[in-house]
Amino acid sequence: MIISFFLAAATAEKTSTYIIHMDLSAKPLPFPDHRSWFSTTLTSVITDKKPRIIYAYTDSVHGFSAVLTNSELQRLKDKPGYVSFTKDLPVKLHTTFSPQFIGLNSASGTWPVSNYGAGTVIGIIDTGIWSDSPSFHDDGVGSVPSKWKGACQFNSSSLCNKKLIGARVFNQGLFANNPDLRGTKIGQYSSPHDTIGHGTHVAAIAAGNHVKNASYFSYAQGTASGVAPYAHIAIYKAAWEEGIYASDVIAAIDQAIRDGVDVISLSLGLSSEDDDDSDGLGLENDPIAVASFAAIQKGVFVVASGGNDGPYYWSLINGAPWIMTVGAGTIGRQFQGTLTLGNGVSFNFPSLFPGDFPSVQYPVTYIESCKAGNKTLANIIVVCYENVNIGSKLQEAKSTGAAAVVLVTNKLLTEQDTVEYQFPVAFISSEHREAIKSYTLSNINNATARLEFRKTVIGTKPAPEVDVYSSRGPFTSFPQILKPDIIAPGTLILSAWPPVKPVAGTTARPLLSGFNLLTGTSMAAPHVAGVAALIKQVHPKWSPSAIKSAIMTTALTLDNPLAVGAGHVSTNSVLNPGLIYDTSPQDFINFLCHNAKQSRKLINIITRSNLSYACKNPSPYLNYPSIIAYFTSDQNGPKIFQRTLTNVGETKRRSYNVSVRGLNGLNVVVEPKRLMFSEKNEKLSYTVRLESPRALQENVVYGLVSWFDEDDAKSEVRCSVVATSLVQES
C-alpha cells in the first residue's frame, strides 16, 4: 500500500517547459563552452530520465530551455549560476511594440511598400556596436550598396556583414584631452566594439533585424525589430567611457558623409552649460549643428535627440533648423507586478524585478516605518509604510530575512525606479494603505499574500504622450523655429545590448542579457532615423527637408508643440504626404542672412565664404513645417509668415482647402484659403497672419493650420502653430 502510494505520487508529478536564465560569468573554467556547462547542470538535477536541452541560448537570453518537474526546478535553483526561470507559455508572433506603436506592420503599409528600408544606410554616431548581437544578423538584407565607401575597423572584417557594413573609430580628441590613455591603453580604444551599451541599443532601434523571443528577463517579450530592419548600419564610435569630445564627433559626421550614408542618427549633444561664453552656446559653437549642415548639403538626413532636461521650457538641445530634433514619449506599455492579499484583494505596482519569486501565499506582517529592529522574519512578506528614507528602510526590512517587502509610499515611482532594488519589493500607492494595513492587522496570525512579477501590460492610457524628462523648446540658440520637431517612443524601449555588460544585479552578481530596457530621447531619435530610411527607400531623390516635412505633417497631433513639436511620429501616411514643405540649404542661409549681424560667424562657418557673397538674397521667411510667434511686451504687433507647399501626390490635379483649429484668443487669417495644383511638383504659397488683440491669456497658445484634400477628406497636411509670451531668462 505504501509502495503503491509513492509510485502514484511519482507518476503524478507534472512537467512543464521552462526557460532557465543563467549567469555566464559563473561558468567554471573546466567547461569548454556554455552548452556543456548547461548540460552538466541539467543532468545533476534530473535523476529518472535522460536530460535534454531544447535550446542553449547565448544571445537573446543567457541560458537554456528544458522540460522539468517542479521538484527538478527547485533543485536547479540551488545550482551555481542560476538566475531565474520563465515558464514557456504559448505566444503569438508580435513586435516588442515600438515599431507597431508608430504604425508599422508586415501585412500592409509602410514596411512592405518600402521593403523595410532595403538599400538605405543609417550612420550611428555613438559608443560603438556589439556586432555579435542577433539584431545585426543579415538574413534578408540585400547586398552592400555600390556607392558605399566605408570601412570595417574591427580586428576581423568578418565581424561586418550585409547588415553592419561599416564600423569606424574616432579617438584622437579623446587622446588629446586624456594623454595618459594613449600610452597604456591604446589597444582598447582602437576597436568599434561597444563597451557601454548605448550605441548597440540605439543602432538596433533604428535598423536592427528581426529577433524572435527577445525580452528583458521575460518583460516585453516578443520579436524585436528595428524600424528599418532591412536597412544597412554603419557605426562610428566617437563616444567613450572617459568622455565625448566635439572633435571626434565632427570627424565622425565628416567621415559618414564621405562613406555614403543616407541618414545620420545622433543620440548625444552639447548643452549651454558646456560653453564658457556667458551668452550661451551659439550655433556657431555647436559642432553638431555645423557638421550637420554639411551633411544636409550633401543630401544626408540628420536626426538628433533633444535632451533629457524636461519638463522645463528652453531646455532643448540639438535644435538647429536643418536637424530633425526629437523628443520622447510613452508607448502605452507598462511592466508590473501584482500583490494579492489572502482575502482576494489585489493591487498592481510598477516593477522590473528580474528574478523569479514563487507565486504562492506567504505569511504577512505589518511593521510601521519598516523599523524591524533585530527581528528575524524569514519566509515572510513584510509590509511597511515609508516616504523619506526608502532605500535604507528597505535594506532594514530585507535584513530580517524577509521573503519580500511591500512598501506603501506616497512617492510616485516608475518601473525604471525599481531596477536598483535587486530583491523582491512591491511599491504600492499610499491610497491603498488602509486596505492593506487593515487586512494584515485584523488577521495577525493568518494574514497571507502572494506576489507575482514579470507582467507586461499593453494598451495603457494615456499614450502616446510626452514624458516628463523630454526637453522642451524653444531652442535657446535659435528660437525663431519651433522645436522639437516631433516626439517618438523613448520610454523603456527594448533593444539589443552587449551580453557582457550587466543590465542589473550587483558587482558580486551582475545580471547579463542580450537585450535591455532604456529610457531617454536617445531612444526616440533612432526611431525617427529608421522612419527616414523607409521614406528614403521609396523617395530616393527627396531632400532632407522633404523627408522632415513628410514626418511632421503626418504626425499624430498632441497638446503643446513646445513639448511635442508636430506630435508623435506615425507611419500611416508618411510615404504619401500629398504636399511637402521643401527647403534647400541655401534657403537656410538666406534666413540666417536676414539676421546677419547675429549670425555672421555661423554664416561664415557653414558657407565658407564672406557675408557679402553668401547673403545676396536674405529672407525673413523659412519654409518650415511649423510656426512659432512671440507676443511679448516689445513684440506685440501682427506676425506674418509665408509658406510654400509642393505637390508630391500621385494625382497631378489636386485642390486643398485650409482649416484653422485652436489658437484661441488670436485673430488668424490665412490667404489664399484654397490651393489648386495642376501638376506634380508644382509649388504654391500662402501666408498666415497672427494677431493678438490683447495680451495672451496663457504663456503658450497653440493650434493647427491644415490643408484638406477636396477629393480625399482623410488626407490632411498639418502645420503646428504656437503663439507664446515666453521670454528667455538671461
Features:
protease, 730 residues, disordered N terminus, Rossmann fold, alpha/beta, Glucose Oxidase, domain 1, 28% strand, single chain, seven-stranded mixed beta sheet, Peptidase_S8_Asp-AS, 18 helices, 4 domains, S8pro/Inhibitor_I9_sf, seven-stranded parallel beta sheet
Helix content: 10-25%
Number of alpha- plus pi-helical segments: 18
| Strand arrangement, major sheet | 6-9-5-12-13-14-22
Question: What is the level-2 CATH architecture name of the largest domain?
Answer: 3-Layer(aba) Sandwich
Count of β-strands? 35
Percent of residues in β-strands? 25-35%
| Number of domain modules | 4
Domain Subtilisin-like protease fibronectin type-III: 622-722
Domain Peptidase S8/S53: 117-556
GO biological process, one term: proteolysis
Active site: 126 (charge relay system), 198 (charge relay system), 522 (charge relay system)
Structure description:
There is one protein chain. This protein has 730 residues and is α/β, with parallel strands linked by helices. The chain has four domains: 16-84; 98-331 and 519-547, Peptidase S8/S53 domain (Rossmann fold), CATH 3.40.50.200; 333-458, Glucose Oxidase, domain 1 (3-Layer(bba) Sandwich), CATH 3.50.30.30; 579-583 and 622-724, Immunoglobulin-like (Sandwich), CATH 2.60.40. 22% of the residues lie in helices and 28% in strands. It is built from 18 helices and 35 strands. The chain has a seven-stranded parallel sheet with strand order 6-9-5-12-13-14-22, sandwiched between helices. 49% of the residues are buried. The model is unreliable at 1-12, 88-96 and 274-279 (pLDDT under 50). InterPro entries: PA_domain, Peptidase_S8/S53_dom, Peptidase_S8/S53_dom_sf, Peptidase_S8_Asp-AS, Peptidase_S8_Ser-AS, Peptidase_S8_subtilisin-rel, Peptidases_S8_3, S8pro/Inhibitor_I9.
